[in-house]
Design goal:
Elements lengths: L4 H9 E3 L7 E4 L3 E4 L1 H14 L8 E5 L9 H17 L2 E3 L6 H8 L6 E4 L13 E4 L2 H8 L4 E4 L2 E8 L8 H12 L7 E6 L8 H9 L8 E3 L4 H9 L19 E6 L6 E3 L7 E3 H4 L6 E4 L7 H11 L9 E4 L4 H10 L1 H8 L2 E2 L19 E4 L15 E4 L2 H10 L27 E2 L31 E8 L6 H4 L13 H4 L11 H8 L2 E4 L12 H8 L2 E6 L4 H9 L3 E5 L13 E4 L2 H6 L4 E6 L4 E6 L4 H9 L2 H9 L1
Parallel strand pairs: 3-4, 3-6, 4-5, 6-7, 9-10, 9-12, 10-11, 15-16, 15-18, 16-17, 18-19, 21-22, 22-23, 23-24
Antiparallel strand pairs: 1-2, 2-8, 5-20, 13-14, 21-25, 24-27, 25-26, 26-27
Helix pairs in contact: 2-3, 2-5, 6-7, 10-12, 10-13, 20-21
The structure holds alpha-methylisocitric acid and iron/sulfur cluster.
The site of alpha-methylisocitric acid has 14 residues, from helix 2.
């Protein structure tokens, strides 16, 4: 029986477990990446493990999220990350060098390798045939220390592409179509593998747009084969030597197959407030818009920017619209500056932002009240833009650029035939914004710089014998990590300070929650389906940990957040029968009798007593032996410390 490409790579990296679907496997991690909003915690955790140097083939620390320095906090965090990187053997990509995923693809990614990143869009690396997975900072810290990363051996979905995209229809429309079909829950427990004749018609930047936004499906990762197009991209990056051809076996067996004819696709958009709320440009119609933002790790490559510049050239941004553009990396920005396309953008009236996440994470450029904003990003969760009633539409760069000129939502096919956009033979390569780590011999002398904003990891405790606590919050379906631990320019600077950031936990849903949870001392959160979708931020588990949350009981979890809860020592439970959700209210006292003993004995179903109503329910928690030990120890940090001791 033939293997898919994803399985071939997993097979060469498995260190623990059996190659059996649905069971837990440990995989060796070749490369890691961190970004600054999750990186400070990751390096604090790495430091706490007491391992002197990273053991990976390549680890890179990026600064791209918290680049708006409206106080000392972010600048201090940059110094901390830079010095920790130097000491621990990590390459440091300085602020200004670009968005982690774009830069990693350009300069560090290698087909066939595994990459673990403390950012949910790490699967961008799948665009060059990597198994690239997003995880919490603590998992990345363990991987830096040479530990395996554990996943449930996923189902492999074959997305078979045929045909060729028509003029002005874009890679973004491909992934929006996949989201339309599968929804934000559709990828949980799956790897999405792209195959078929259509693959050959897509360049690496286009493939990377598609794998990047596979994160919004909830997928473990997404992957394209590594072929002559990958080689061509790596040649442009002067890295042809890292290329190998990689593809699935002819007779590979997949768990599911989806067919997409690229020739039939039309411009699409994810409408407010979910990446799977898909409509076509035609269905949306010519609605008036207020803002356009172009950039983010999904759509900020040179190819994207070339199309945008072409559409803007000689025109003026509509008087009722603000347009901002953030090229994804210094490499892209520098090439645009040299080839004159940057001038076309500036001339048209675009506000050029630094190469960073920027508005995608609410670091500036929040739209006006109830403003309609078209963005080439990957997430449009409620409030993420910084404007609670902002109406965010996710679109392709082509749709964004034309709409910015017209002042209304536009179908880029109006532009007629599309010229051929050819990437240059060679990209401009200058790694001067990447600082190399200290030599092993010198690393002991490197001092880690710690500003006053950097506070230690919150206190943990082994799992209690019996959990008995009030429900401090009850929420519905599809709660995102942006609900649990919002980002934005005001809150992101507190990422290294759990006591402070906890004051903002869940305020999007209920601004009294932090205070209430703190007063209760210990509590339980109840939620609906796909709880914790979105970001990899472990802060969405660390803030509840700090606020005394002992268990989260929901209909179902998103992958990364569930893992982060276990890592933080918070019990992730699912209702055996979803109707139990309706029988629990905020303020009810819930009890899980003898829970530690039950978990120790290997059980996966537990009795939940609602002391307030006197009802009983069954809740589930499938834990591998390793996860059981982590839960009992009080989280991954304690578990790792125990193991190392
Ligand atoms: C995001 O897009 O939500 C982020 C900010 O990149 C997060 C990481 C974080 O919260 O720091 C992610 O996607 O993992
Ligand atoms: Fe940055 Fe946005 Fe990409 Fe997250 S999704 S890494 S915030 S650009």
């Amino acid at each position: 029986m033939g293997l898919s490409l994803a399985e071939k790579i997993l097979k060469t990296h498995i260190t623990d477990g059996e190659f059996v679907k649905g069971t837990e496997i440990g995989i060796r991690i070749d490369q890691t990446l961190t970004q600054d909003a999750t990186g400070t915690m990751a390096y604090l955790e790495f430091e706490a493990m007491g391992i002197p140097r990273v053991k990976t083939e390549r680890s890179v620390a990026y600064v791209d999220h918290n680049t708006l320095q409206s106080g000392f906090e972010n600048a201090d965090d940059h110094l901390f990350i830079g010095s920790a990187a130097k000491k621990f053997g990590v390459y440091y990509s300085r602020p200004g060098n670009g968005i982690c995923h774009q830069v990693h693809l350009e300069r560090f990614g290698i087909p066939g390798k595994t990459l673990l990143g403390s950012d949910s869009h790490t699967p961008t690396g799948g665009g060059i045939g990597m198994i690239a997975i997003g995880a919490g900072g603590l998992d990345v810290a363990v991987a830096m220390g040479g530990g395996a990363y554990y996943i449930t051996y996923p189902k492999i979905v074959n997305v078979k592409l045929s045909g060729k995209l028509r003029s002005w229809v874009s890679a973004k429309d491909v992934i929006l179509e996949v989201l339309r079909r599968l929804t934000v829950k559709g990828g949980v427990g799956k790897i999405i593998e792209y195959t078929g004749e259509g693959v050959k018609t897509l360049s690496v930047p286009e493939r990377a747009t598609i794998t990047n936004m596979g994160a919004e499906l909830g997928a473990t990762t997404s992957i394209f084969p590594s072929d002559e197009i990958t080689l061509d991209f790596l040649k442009k990056e002067n890295r042809a030597e890292v290329w190998t051809e990689l593809k699935a076996d002819e007779d590979a067996v997949y768990d599911e197959t989806i067919e997409i004819n690229l020739s039939e696709l039309v411009p699409l958009s994810a409408c407010p407030h979910s990446p799977d709320n898909i409509k076509s440009a035609e269905e949306i119609g010519k609605i008036k818009i207020n803002q356009v933002c172009i950039g983010s790790c999904t759509n900020s490559s040179l190819l994207d920017m070339m199309k945008v510049a072409y559409i803007l050239k000689g025109k003026t941004v509509n008087p009722d619209v603000q347009l901002s553009i953030a090229p994804g990396s210094k490499q892209v920005l520098e090439m645009l500056a040299k080839n004159g396309l940057l001038a076309d953008m500036i001339d048209a009236g675009a506000r050029i932002l630094e190469s960073a996440c920027g508005p995608c994470i609410g670091m500036g450029q929040s739209p006006n009240s109830a403003g309609v904003s078209l963005r080439t990003f990957n997430r449009n969760f409620l409030g993420r833009s910084g404007t609670k009633d902002g109406q965010i539409y996710l679109v392709s760069p082509e749709t964004a650029a034309l709409s910015a000129i017209n002042g209304y939502f536009s179908d880029p096919r109006e532009l007629g035939d599309m010229p051929e956009f050819k990437l240059p033979e060679k990209f401009d390569i200058n790694d001067n914004m990447v600082t190399l780590p200290a030599n092993e011999a010198d690393s002991a002398d490197v001092e880690i710089l710690r500003g006053p904003n950097i506070k230690p990891y919150p206190k943990t405790a082994p799992l209690a014998e019996t959990i008995s606590a009030k429900v401090s919050l009850k929420v519905g379906d599809n709660i995102t990590t942006d609900h649990i631990m919002p980002a934005g320019a005001k809150i992101l600077p507190l990422r290294s300070n759990i006591p402070e950031i906890s004051k903002h936990c869940f305020v999007v849903c209920d601004d009294k929650f932090p205070e209430r949870a703190k007063t209760l001392g210990e509590s339980i959160i109840v939620g609906g389906a796909n709880y914790g979708q979105g970001s990899s931020r472990e802060h969405a588990a660390l803030a509840p940990l700090y606020l005394g949350v002992k268990a989260v009981i929901v209909k179902s979890f998103a992958r990364i957040h569930r893992a982060n809860l276990i890592n933080a020592g918070i019990l992730p439970l699912e209702f055996a029968d979803e109707t139990a959700f309706d029988k629990i209210s905020e303020g009810d006292v819930l009890e899980l009798p003898n829970i530690a003993e039950e978990i120790k004995s290997g059980k996966s179903e537990f009795n939940l007593v609602n002391k307030t109503t006197d009802e009983q329910f069954t809740v589930k928690c499938e834990l591998s032996i390793r996860n059981r030990e982590i839960m009992l120890a009080g989280g991954l940090l304690d578990y790792t410390r125990e193991k190392l001791a």
